[in-house]
Amino acid sequence: MQQPPKIQVHKSVTEIAAIVGGEISGDSFAVVSRLQRIEFAVQGDISFLSNRKYLKFLTETKATCLIVPKDFAIPAESNVSSFILVDNPYSAFVKLLRVFVPERKYPEGFIHPSATIDSSSVISPTAYIGAGCVVGANCNIGDSSVLTANITLYDSVAVGNNCIVHAGVVCYHDTEIGNNAIIHAGSVIGSDGFGYDESTDGSFTKVPQVGNVVIGNDVEIGANCTIDRAMVGSTVIGDGVKLDNLVHIAHNVIVGDNTAIAAQTGISGSAKLGARNRIAGQVGVVGHLETTDDVIVHAQSGVAKSITSSGHYFGSPAKNHGEELKILAALRQLPDLIRQVNELQRKIQD
Q1: Are 33 and 52 in contact (CB under 8 A)?
Q2: 63, 86, 149, 163: least CB-packed within 10 angstroms?
């Protein structure tokens, strides 16, 4: 299929200010045609500045326009010809992403000749099924949903409306996916949970995993994630959940609405995460525990017991963030304390 030509966008600073609801300082007639990071921006580019760590690039950047906070002190001398002042520069820049780089559109009602679809499955007339896709029996693909290429849906998989499933995704039988989901390449949904009955001789008997995975609306799942089917019942990913790449969700886990989980995190079996949790990278969560709503767990922490109060947690085992920082500060003083104790012992002995 022929690729659409790359769209070139030219916008004046006045037009951009209207889009993001900002005030202009400088040349309002300047024209930009590309979004770029501040440290790499050149003439014709627009960038933004919201993090103080990037102030060092302010005198070096060659960007035509910068989006900055409303209270920003614009330097008297700058290579930048135009500034747009807004409440939140990052959010304003994000708003421009789809203006300058429109989302790719897939043709509706397209089924590639190499796709294999069981006759019992129901495919919306507005869905797109790409090359090499395999759709098993009794599946249902909703309106305007896209299976890009080489995707395998086992029997009885339901995909809602306006979903995008990227190449190489595998959904095991009975998986249910809500509306507006984005599933990135290589993720596996509904594989067997890690369930074994250990015998007295140390050998294992596999426990059948007869449940499924239920994914809510507006969920995004990163690349190479694994979400295990439940032993019985359902592994549940709530509405609005965002999973980074390489996240593992074990069997019978429940992830609350609008929770975000960063890369290389593992959630053990039957854990229940509350709504609006923020789980940073490389966090481990022990099975059969719960976190309440509005919990933030910092990177490389280990959650070994239930968290019943909202707030920040850090460490292994995870503790209240402030308490853990005090413990770490005290540990840094330990060598000096040991030296002082040894000196006191010597004086006593003398």
Answers
A1: no
A2: 149
